[in-house]
Amino acid sequence: MIVIQHTNRDILLQIRDLLRVVSQEAYSLPLELLHGSSMGQHIRHTLEFYQCLFEQTPLGFIDYDARNRDLRLETDVAFGLVFTEQLLTRLQPPLTDSLLVMRLCLAQNEPQRVQTTLSRELVYIAEHAIHHLAILKIALRAHFPDIALPVHFGVAYSTVQYQNSIQN
Length: 168
Known about the structure:
This protein has 168 residues and is mostly helical. It is built from seven helices and three strands; from the N terminus they run H-H-H-E-H-H-E-E-H-H. Helix 1 runs parallel beside helix 6 and helix 3 packs antiparallel against helix 6. The protein is globular, with a radius of gyration of 16 Å. The protein starts with a helix and ends with a helix. The model has no long low-confidence stretch (mean pLDDT 94).
């Protein structure tokens, strides 16, 4: 569980570092490359998955569709920074794995329930976040090339390991 926590902390630190350097205008600007969505919308979406997990786990379930969709997270960089710091704090104490029931809607729009665990959902959220960071990396390079990103921003950890193995 410690490695999973560390991985998610690393992802949230990447988001925090991005929020520290992006301008308010760039953050909320709709981008054609992102089909009209903004960097802020991708950050909000990603952070709210973490929020769902932390708020719902004590209740024994997780439902990512029940997000708050707080527009301040997609329009206000400072609010996003504070929110990210709060999520980082929630990842600090040793978390105890627990059984959860995931609620979700699938193609038939009939609510489904699936058994899962906190550790499995933290793995899912990490992969989900990396996916959104990869999308943001494409947009940032195209629209805001002056924003410096770490070399592994938006790159899956397995890809980083593979790249390191073929370079050695």
